Amino acid sequence: MRRHLMVLLGLLVGLSMVAAACGSDDDDAGGSGASDGADRPAIVVGAQDFGESKVLAEIYAQAFEAEGWDASVQELAGYRDILLGAFESGDVNFSAEYAASLLEYLNGDDKTEATGDVEETVGFLDGYLADNDLVALAAAPGVDTNAFVITRETADELGIESLSDLADKGGDLVLGAPSDCETNAFCLPGLESTYGLDLSANFVSIDDGPSRVSALEAGEIDIAVVFSSDSTIVAKDLVLLEDDQNLLAADNVLPVVSTEIDEAYGSELRDLADKISAKLTTEVLLDLNDQFDNDKRDAADIAKDWLEEEGLVS
Amino acid sequence: MTELADLLSDPRTWWGARGLVHRAGAHLELALLATAIAMALALPLGIAVGHRRRGGAVVAAVVNVGRSVPTYAVIAILFPITLRARFGDLGFWAGVGGLVLLALPPLFANTYVGMTEVDRSLVESARAMGLRPLQVVRSVELPVALPLVLTGVRTAAVQVMATATLASVFGYNALGSFLLEGLTQQDTAKLVTGAAAVSGLSVLTDAILGVAQRLATPWVPTRRRRFGRSDRAKSAPVVSGSALGPEGNIA
Fold first, then answer.
1. Which residues in chain A have their CB less than 8 angstroms from residue B171's CB?
2. B3 neighbourhood in chain A, CB within 8 Å
3. Cα A80 versus chain centre, distance
4. Residue B240 has pLDDT above 50, yes or no
């Protein structure tokens, strides 16, 4: 018995040493890991906990690496709140964000500034970013905003195709959305102010994305909030309700970088990031998500293939 | 601080479907049912296997699977299956399933070890006096094993109470919802309220079960001394999960 205990103890100590070693490696990458030659900080690209964010993070990081820069991806097991915390602590210093949602997150609960125009939205955003020592690069043409989807049966049965139809005929339907929907300007408050539809009494928060879609299919909820570039909309034949009164704003993919990195790499990084962003259209996002969600491919492989196809790396 | 005061003075924080009272009730419902089901499964099993003093390692290996799979993953896997349930709120049965698996290892391990640690000569004497196996279990082995069994119940109940927040990720409207809303809405007051409520319930559970344990086994001195014999230690391959803290709160 005693010998067994010793073996176990030895294993535990060994494991913790390995873990500690891994930990310190990460720290080196995240800190000022000076690449040889130019003494520039390493770029750590933050990825939020959904497929699109992971693939986009890989795309930018791999392109930077191909330039010979020290770049890596840091997966964050969470969303915007975690990402901004990681920016603040210096654990990440680059990320692909979304213009309108980021603006509404940073500007507080009580006002809505984002519009359907991406230039205008980023214009508002710049001030808030500067307060956080961040800079926005050029926005991509691709948009990934909140989308309200219902099943084909509900759509046919109630004759609902747009959010205006929903406001007319769907006041009793149950909405399933992430927990932030209560205060998100493009969710419950937006539905009420733009469409006069108050679903706050029939609202269920489900934060796990795939579970939200299963709950929709099982009829536990009638309307689900998903990303508009979510490939399951097509795969599951869901009806994306048309935003006929322009509630949803310009959620273009928007690379955000710390001022430290921006100053260290200057136009070199901006030019490369802009070149990549320009090719990220909504169709590209749908395709990348389809590969991640339905083909179950690895984010790094999807990114590598796309960069090669587009001739962004040789 | 004023935000917290504002939140707590708002009646909507307390009453209604999204209020503390309803959510704490839902949290208790989930945690208590999961603990009860796990007890109904693990205690008889632990007693039976412990009484035979055989097969403990095999059963422990099966039961311990519950500890190696993250509760979050179990709930995520069960969620689509349990959508067909005709009763129970969204996310409830998936939550129950995940929490039962979490509670099984400490319950089984403590019961089993408690039974096997009963002095063999005590059991032999009981048999020699003509007690039937069931009587031996009821009148000799169980009373001796009771302190450890109750320790297992206490450990499991506290773990479940703290981990039940996870069901809220899957639509279960309970105390975990405060944590998720606090995080995603940048509302520290909500986060603090939810965290305080969950830890309050966990501490309360521990305290109540601690008192119950002392009342049920008054002969056990508060500071227990162990008179373990080295050969007996061999029959205890399963160390309880009690040393492990409650697993993965969302925050």
1. 176, 204-206, 211, 215, 220
2. none
3. 8
4. no
The tens digit of pLDDT for each residue in A97-156 reads 999 989 988 987 667 788 888 999 999 999 999 999 999 999 999 999 888 999 999 999
Residues B142-188: tens digit of each pLDDT: 999 999 999 999 999 999 999 999 999 999 999 999 999 998 888 89
Task: Flag if B169 and A206 touch (Cβ within 8 Å).
Answer: yes
Q: Do A208 and B91 touch (CB under 8 A)?
A: no
**pLDDT by residue (tens digit) across A165-177?**
999 998 899 999 9
- Calculate how close chain A gets to B218, using CA atoms only, in Å: 32
Question: What are the DSSP calls for B96-139, one per residue?
Answer: HHHHHHHHHHHHHHHHHHHHHTS-HHHHHHHHHTT--HHHIIII
Token digits of residue A237:
């034949």
Shortest CA gap A148–chain B (Å): 17
Asked if residue A204 lies in contact with residue B170, where contact means CB atoms within 8 angstroms, the answer is no
**Cα separation, A302 vs A292, whole angstroms:** 8
Q: In A, which residues are within 8 Å of B90 by CB distance?
A: 204, 206, 215, 220-221
- Whether the CB-CB separation of A143 and A228 falls below 8 Å is answered with yes
User: What Å distances lie between residue A294 and A230, A232, A234, B107, CA to CA?
Assistant: 10, 8, 11, 40
Q: How far apart are CA B228 and CA B237, in angstroms?
A: 14
Region of A90 please: left (phi>0), alpha (psi -120 to 50) or beta. Answer: left
CB-CB neighbors (< 8 A) of A78 in chain B: 183
pTM (two decimals): 0.76
| Contact (Cβ atoms closer than 8 angstroms) between residue A256 and residue A128 | no
Q: Is A218 helix (H, G, I), strand (E, B) or coil?
A: coil
Q: What are the structure tokens assigned to B75, written together?
A: 């709930």
DSSP three-state, residue A223: strand
Residue B229 has pLDDT above 70, yes or no: no
Q: Looking at the partner chain, which of A179, A214, A218 has a beta carbon nearest the beta carbon of B177?
A: A179
